[in-house]
Amino acid sequence: MALIPENLGKGLSLVSEIDPTYPHQKKMVIGIAGTAKNTGKTTTLNCLLKEASYRNISIAVTSIGFDGEDIDNVTFLPKPRITVYPNFIITTSQQCLQSSTAVVDVLQHTGMYTPLGEIVILRVMKEGRIVIAGPSNTKELRVVVEKMKSYNPHYVFIDGSLNRIAPMTVVDSIIFTTGGARSTDISTLCSEMQVIESFFHLPVTDINVHTASNVVAIPLLLEKQEVEAFQLQQKENKTTLYISKLISSSALEHLTEYCVKGSIMFQNIIFPDPFSMLIQENIFQTYECISHLKKSNVSVLLLHVPTLSCIIANPFYPQYNSNIYYERYLHSVELLERLQLSCSAPVFNAKETKSSIIFDTCLQ
Amino acid sequence: MILQTTQSKHILCVPLDPVHDVGIKLINAELSNHGHKTELLAPDLPIESIIKKAASDHYDYILVSRTIGYGIAELLARFVDLLDVAGIREHSKIVIGGKAITPELAAELGFDKGFDEHSSIETVLAYIEGKTIDETEIKAARIKPSISTKHSYLFHNKEIETLLSTIVDKTLQWSEGKTTSGIQRARVREELFHTRNSMQQESLQSQYNMLCDKEIVEGNSHHRFPKGVRFVDKQELQNLEQMLSGHTSFHAVKMQHNRRQPLVFKFLGSGCPIMDIVHGKICERWGIDGFLIINPSWEARYEGLLEGMLTHENDGTITSFDNIRLMKRWLDPATLLTVRAHRGLNTPEIALLAGEAGADLTKIDLVYGSLGAGTDPERLTVDGIEAIKIAARYNMEFDIPGNDELSGVPAWKTLAGLLINVMLGKKLGAKAILKPLFCYGPHIVLHGQMKLNYVDFNAAKILALNEIVDCPIWPGEPIAFMTQTEDRVQSANATSYHASLAASLGVDAITIASTDEAYSRGPICISSRIDSIRAVTDAFNFMGDAYFSPTPAMQIFKDQLIQNITETLRSVANADNLPDAINKGLLGNAEDGAYPGKFGKGTVTCVGD
User: Fold this and answer.
1) Counting Cβ atoms within 10 Å, is residue B361 exposed (0-12), middle (13-18) or buried (19+)?
2) Which candidate among B86, B264, B475, B516 keeps its CA 20 to 30 Å from the CA of B434?
3) In percent, how much of chain A has pLDDT > 70?
């Protein structure tokens, strides 16, 4: 209570108004990743935050970068697009703070830096808009998430950033957004989401990759020439291959080919998590390789699998013609129906579905 | 020279590009020269090879260079992800630089830092070494130049010196005991500046009003201003303060490639002092050394000046003390500011206001102001002499624009007029700056001096003046006048060629126009200002310490100019005084297209009248 200035007016949600009965969740770190810009990531985040505020649930929000699409032409700083509510815990960068319309209290300076200044952790005192900015690498993101958890939010949201996914390894569950801005061909969207979802359905292993004697662990990068070497040198008791970090696409292809042929005898190939697949250059190729491996009785396993809690489909896409930007839309119903047929995770349109439904589905 | 530093960093330089690696090579070399341990990868390596290399050693920084291309954002983002998964980000900072890069893009893509194409090696080094660039050190590096200090004002041509001395002595003798309402207003204004007694101020203000035209009194006393004039309001000032307080020039950018190249000036005079200041700040950032405030042409026709912070919805910013002071306040202390006083009925007062407001220079030309700018020769001579004395008192240099050439006056007559002003300044203790034009004036069009090239005749003007007297030379006004078209590229080019020539000739300063200045049909836009600044900066870079080589025609032109200047001055010396010479057309006549001005005719009186 000491953090709240006395002269704040109505509409301020006081600490004591946070619903104390709302259970803190085990799966509390939730990522929101977009397959492209304009697929509804920001809309989804805003929708979830508004619903949380309505339910008096405190939320912490950070990002693995920042969304810089809207730039103020005078300040050249990103325009704030996320609405935050009292008692939310937010990270932003020192420079982005000046464009915030939310009234905030600085809780911590993290000592971590982005190109737009130091990351600071704030508590929102009065509703407004802010640029969410956070650490762009996994190590710092883990630290920031732990720092934010110390303020006892019910959930920690991690806003994704264009084309990057690796730091999402810290999440317990993830929401993907896709839509017309990714591709105007609904079949392509369905195929892509199907492939993405398949990575989240890979089984979790109980093999201890660090101690088990039958594991070949690749410490950094598995390349084609090392796969060739497996053919010649694989020992019979080494039945599990653990790709702890990276595998090149040519190495994956060759590994698959040799496993299918039987010239390499791994029974299990283990990756840390689905994001190891998502950072590959061609996820369709990765999917094909995994399918072939499975058919050849090679188990592709993961150490950890976050839940893919839902898919947000945005029919909107921008069409450019003679330097003019036109708003266009895919057929919304067809998009949702076909995506739902392709994927087992619930599919929603963030603007048309009730935020309470999305909230309950994603944050179980 | 390799400098040993206690903060030596281990740096991997990565050209993430199939071909373009010049930038990263230069940075690699500079970092190495500063004592850092650097390794430079070859371009066009597979991403996996780069990852392996980055993981093979403990690099403090991985500098990634990438130029513009399709799919660049996806490529860079994936690269950042791979570095993250490989664990490299746990000990290495990942930095991106290149033509497509901005700090915002770098942040969005997940880099620790981004440098754009304008970033200097100093900022890169400061980041690598964990230092902050001291802004005050940068600002301190920008020293206010002086145009006249390296000139002795000694005449090499003794005949011309003698003639000028005769002309000036006659003129000074003629003007003794004469006064004008312009001079009286300047004296009252000076007293007003130094009086604190409110009753005395009231009395002086009343005296001032008596010396003004009714339109000026209406404006100053009743705030009934001429059409389009109003006070700048508080909100506008607050907005200006808010905007500028958060943005200061971080880098002292220099346009000049070496010390021999001239200072560069631009005009301000949109009508709005706020707009002028904003344009001025942006031009400062791009390296402009000084500005000339252009006032509205109607201001010259009234006896008296409007007071207050005033904005004017038309060309020309009102020359009020408050406007000049506002500009001085916001412009960098090292930026030179010239206030135009060379025509009209307020010359001494404007010189006084300029001095009191802290301007660095004023503009006075007794000849052009009378011939091409409409003021009666007698009035402007008396006023001008007083203005030069005021300039001397405030230690302000004064520039003399040779714009008579634009009317059709031959160059030698214009230059003769400039030299008369120089001698006047010398005798009155003020330092004049010669402003011959680099233009394609009517006389040149008719007589073909620039038909074969623009170099010879322009060079001849400068070299002729150099041969006559050791005095600063500042071509304008602006350079390339009447060679520019509405095409912005052509206009910028024309300015840059003339700037190159000026640099080659070793002049002290130049005035350059924006690329839409002659044709804007409205306020000049900032992008067209930057057009010409960039063009001149590149021209200076191109010229470096090289020279233009004129043809033998230059020598002929030069000798002709000196001969004609001498003849002109002989005829002026035979006149009674300078106004008499101007009225007789000796420094430009009707045939040349020059007519003695009429404003203020009959207003010169004797002291005590």
Assistant:
1) buried
2) B516
3) 88
Q: What is the structure's pLDDT at B309?
A: 95
ipTM entry: 0.89
Residues from chain B that touch A67, judged by Cβ atoms under 8 A, are 108
Pick out chain A residues at pLDDT < 70.
Answer: 1-27, 67-80, 323, 364
Give the distance from residue A1's alpha carbon to the nearest chain B alpha carbon, in angstroms. 34
Least CB–CB distance from B82: residue in A74, A223, A279: A279
Q: CB atoms < 10 A from the CB of B585, how many?
A: 18
Distance of CA A160 to the CA centre of its chain: 5
pLDDT of residue A71: 63
Average pLDDT of the residues in B574-593: 94
In this prediction, residue A72 carries a pLDDT of 52
Closest Cα in chain B to A160: B108
| Residue of A245, A236, A253 lying closest to A218 (CA atoms) | A245
Nearest CA in chain A to B113: A115
Which of A322 and B443 is assigned the larger pLDDT? Answer: B443
Q: Taking Cα atoms as reference points, which of B26, B88, B33, B30 lies closest to residue B62?
A: B88
Phi then psi dihedrals of residue B292, to 5 deg: -115, 125
CA–CA separation, A353 and A120 (whole Å):
33
Q: What is the 3-state secondary structure (H, E, C) of B289-342?
A: CEEEECCCHHHHHCCCCCCCCEEECCCCCCCCHHHHHHHHHHCCCCCEEEEECC
What span, in angstroms and rounded, lies between the C-alpha atoms of A144 and A122? Answer: 12
Q: What is the mean pLDDT of chain B?
A: 91
Q: CA–CA separation, A55 vs B110, rounded Å?
A: 33
Which of A113, A220, A279 has the CB atom closest to B112's CB atom? A113
Give A27-74 pLDDT, tens digit per residue.
699 999 999 888 888 889 999 999 999 999 999 999 998 765 566 544
Burial of B56 (0-12, 13-18, 19+ CB in 10 A): exposed
B526 with B270: CB under 8 angstroms? no
Q: Does B110 sit within 8 Å of A164, measured CB to CB?
A: yes
B107 touches chain A (CB under 8 A): yes
* B residues 54-73 closer than 8 Å to A (CB): 55, 73
- What is the C-alpha separation between B400 and B371, in angstroms, rounded? 13
Q: What is the 3-state secondary structure (H, E, C) of chain A?
A: CCCCCCCCCCCCCCHHHCCCCCCCCCCCEEEEEECCCCCCHHHHHHHHHHHHHHCCCCEEEEECCECCCCECCCCCCECCCEEECCCCEEEEEHHHHCCCCCEEEEEEEEEEEECCEEEEEEEEEECEEECCECCCCHHHHHHHHHHHHCCCCCEEEEECECCECHHHHHCCEEEEEEECCCCCCHHHHHHHHHHHHHHHCCCECCCCCCCCCCEEEECCEECHHHHHHHHHHCCCCCCEEEECCEECHHHHHHHHHHHHHCCCCCCEEEECCCHHHHCCCCHHHHHHHHHHHHHCCCEEEECCCCEEEEEEEECEEEEEECCEEEEEECCHHHHHHHHHHHCCCCEECCCCCCHHHHHHHHCC
Structure token pair of residue B408: 């059709």
Nearest-CB residue to A161 (from B85, B87, B110): B110
Q: Which amino acid is it at B546?
A: A
Nearest residue of chain A to residue B54 (CA atoms): A220
**Vertex A330: Cα angle to A327 and A331 (nearest 5):** 130
Tokens of A76: 């050249």
Inter-chain touch B84–A166, beta carbons under 8 Å: yes
Neighbours of B4 (CB within 10 A): 7
Of B60, B106, B74, B61, give the one whose Cα is nearest residue A114.
B106
B393-430 residue pLDDT tens: 999 999 999 998 988 999 999 999 999 999 999 999 99
